[in-house]
Specification:
Length: 154
């Protein structure tokens, strides 16, 4: 993570971010995976049940149980090349939806992250609403995708 972050995402890698990953290794209910293309590690995916974080769930105000996902592609030569939507669909289909046995997934990029919003639209997510999450500087552009919508995509 530090290598990808320091090589172009943001400088320097913040200790608070590292601490979040340390906490996950000690039992927080977020499941993280290294994303590979062929044998090359290229990024990270994570999934979690929204309801397992009551403060976050309250901020989102969903009226249904949902899986949350996050991802990033960390290799500079692969960013903006269209790999994210296909990788995200495969991750949801093969990992996140089966793991949680839920029918809905939400993702919440910053309202200022237009590239991510567009990639999630290409993956099949549709806009739901803006959500202000405590301790986040920008509102999240909350987006939703159901398992049946995912199954109907080519």
């Amino acid at each position: 993570m530090r290598r990808w972050w320091d090589e172009g995402i943001r400088l320097p890698y913040p200790e608070a971010e590292i601490e979040e990953y340390r906490a996950a290794l000690h039992g927080e209910p977020t499941y993280r995976y290294v994303a590979h293309m062929d044998a090359r590690p290229v990024g990270m995916f994570q999934h979690y049940r929204i309801g397992d974080s009551p403060e976050y769930a309250a901020a989102l105000g969903l009226d249904e149980e949902a899986v949350g996902v996050d991802l990033f592609i960390g290799e500079a030569d692969l960013i903006g090349r269209g790999h994210g939507p296909a990788m995200l669909r495969a991750f949801l289909r093969d990992v996140a939806f089966p793991f949680h046995r839920l029918e809905t997934c939400v993702i919440g990029p910053s309202v200022n992250n237009t590239a991510a919003i567009r990639a999630y639209e290409k993956a099949g997510f549709t806009p739901l609403r803006l959500a202000q999450v405590p301790d986040e500087p920008d509102p999240e552009y909350l987006m939703r995708l159901t398992r049946s919508q995912l199954d109907s995509l080519h």
